[in-house]
Amino acid sequence: MSFLIDSSIMVTSQVLFFGFGWLFFMRKLFKDYEEYQDAILQTYQDTILSSLIPLAYFLHCSSRYFHWKLNLCVILLILVFMVPFYIGYFVVSNIRLLHRQKLLFACVLWLTFMYFFWKLGDPFPILSPKHGILSIEQLISRVGVIGVTLMALLSGFGAVNCPYTYMSYFLRNVTDADILALERRLLQTMDMIISKKKRIAVAHRTMFQRGEVHNKPTGFWGMIKSVTTSVAGSENLSLIQQEVDALEELSRQLFLETADLHATKERIEYSKTFQGKYFNFLGYFFSIYCVWKIFMATINIVFDRVGKTDPVTRGIEITVNYLGIQFDVKFWSQHISFILVGIIIVTSIRGLLITLTKFFYAISSSKSSNVIVLLLAQIMGMYFVSSVLLIRMSMPLEYRTIITEVLGELQFNFYHRWFDVIFLVSALSSILFLYLAHKQAPEKHMAL
Amino acid sequence: MAALDRVKVLVLGDSGVGKSSLVHLLCHNQVLGNPSWTVGCSVDVRIHDYKEGTPEEKTYYIELWDVGGSVGSATSVKSTRAVFYNSLNGIILVHDLTNKKSSQNLYRWSLEALNRDVAPTGVLVTNGDYDREQFADNQIPLLVIGTKLDQIPETKRNEVLTRTAFLAEDFNAEEINLDCTNPRYLAAGSSNAVKLSRFFDKVIEKRYFFKRWQSRFLASRKERDLEEEH
């Protein structure tokens, strides 16, 4: 009986999330494009549906184990088999030449993917010889590696980018005069391009007309004459053409700079509003949190340690010991850690979706939108699986054992170490990158 | 070239519909070999003979400004694009015949360009919705061009062409449907070439021979009002 109740809860909640995912999909991603196929939608929905493992937190029954296992199997099936195959199929259909044997080439691409996927497991200490080839542990371990790398990269970048974006301390001062000056330069460049192109067009036209005249059979010498005159003309022309190319490159740069200035000006105005001030305040908190995380990651690597207790229980223990407040440690730690973990997951999902949406807009066009959606689904799926792996760290002991049961025997410590390493690398490189970008921009404007 | 001589025509449309290929075809009579994404704006020049074949024939340079981007861009990108909409004399709206959304987005594109260039006594649209009256009063000549005609199968062609005819009527503009990879569609003497030539003539006339253009414009308005009454 309770099994039925649990199943119905699962199904309803999955339908709910499916509704959200669908809304997001239709509203944000596909607003401007019409061409999509139903199969893609199906795949995307299935991925979102099956990724809702965290919901199992709310089920207090033994059927939880069954649901977890079921969800996991479905996700893996989709991630490793269906989505890559679809991606291969759509990439192939974009290339006009291979239209005939679409399916064949898609299968070839899929097999290549599987081969590299398998090879991925070799350099890492995750292969335990007691399990067979197609066991869940094998698949999860590989998916976990990719997902953890991705997560660490994104977290590293996000940890640095977040304070940079939120805090108005980093905002360059942009005045209207700057923007006007840059726009004037842009228009001047366009005018120069136009005048040069007019000269080329006139030269082409006169050559064309003269060429017609010379097409009359004036004989051998007429042909020689036309060759010599046009050679001088075309040399001049190619010089002008080169200048035009250089100017066009310049105009593109100026356009991008102007767009950048407009965006900065908008941000300045936004930061003066209440919302902006609130985010600025948050930015200070985040920067402290990020510095702490980077510090912890370094310590973990240097001192080769993996945390034994989760931070919430630790925090409560500290308060109990130092402040003498009487808590029922077990009871509170369980609930608080659930809530915290829920918040972390929700914010990280939101962050991921926002970043991916921006990326999607930047590189999308009506041709490749199918492939990009599928890539999105693939990335999200891997992200979810690996977040389950890593969440294990922040949970109290009893729940860790449950996850260990479901996911089988994996070397969890390895994943945490790997996460720390990649996180550190990513955070440091994004600091470097942002520093360079920040320094370069004011210098460009000084040169105006 | 002094600014007085300029005849500026914008080429607007969604990403990937073929504006750059079209502009290259119009200016060089050749097919563009390696189309790539347009960042910012790319300009090209076409030499046009106004009133070709008559004693009043005169040569003008028409600047075709191909502005890249999508209609749903961030506000900062839109305000950057707006710098190209100054003092325009004509608009070519390009849409992809295989993609209905690109045709629908043309309304938003035209509003974006026209709102920027509104004269002090001109019609202002405040909520961005399409208003047919505004296009009836609009004085900037428009031309609607549909691309990728070769990718429409024969069976669907009629349906697509009817839809685009309605679209052109909404804009009070002529329409041309072609394939940018085939210069045959704009061969001299074809109906498409004639429409194109008429459009450019209209643009030049409005710019330089205002009285002549105005009388013609008012006459066509009267004709249309009479039609609607019946």
From TrEMBL, chain A:
Q: What is its main location?
A: membrane
- Which reaction is recorded as catalysed by this protein? bromide(in) = bromide(out); fluoride(in) = fluoride(out); iodide(out) = iodide(in)
Q: How does it sit in the membrane?
A: Multi-pass membrane protein
Domain Abscisic acid G-protein coupled receptor-like: residue ranges:
270-439
Intracellular or extracellular location(s): Membrane
Q: Would the keyword Membrane turn up in this protein's UniProt record? A: yes
Which Pfam family, any one, appears in the UniProt record? ABA_GPCR
Q: Can you list the GO cellular component terms from the UniProt entry?
A: membrane
Q: Which residues cross the membrane?
A: 7-25, 68-91, 103-120, 140-162, 281-303, 336-361, 373-395, 415-436
The entry's keywords:
Membrane, Transmembrane, Transmembrane helix
What are the residue boundaries of the Golgi pH regulator conserved domain, all occurrences included? Answer: 135-200
Q: Which family does it belong to?
A: Belongs to the Golgi pH regulator (TC 1.A.38) family.
PANTHER family annotated for this entry? G-PROTEIN COUPLED RECEPTOR 89-RELATED, GOLGI PH REGULATOR A-RELATED
Name of this protein? G protein-coupled receptor 89A
From which source organism is this entry?
A: Gallus gallus
Lineage of origin: Eukaryota, Metazoa, Chordata, Craniata, Vertebrata
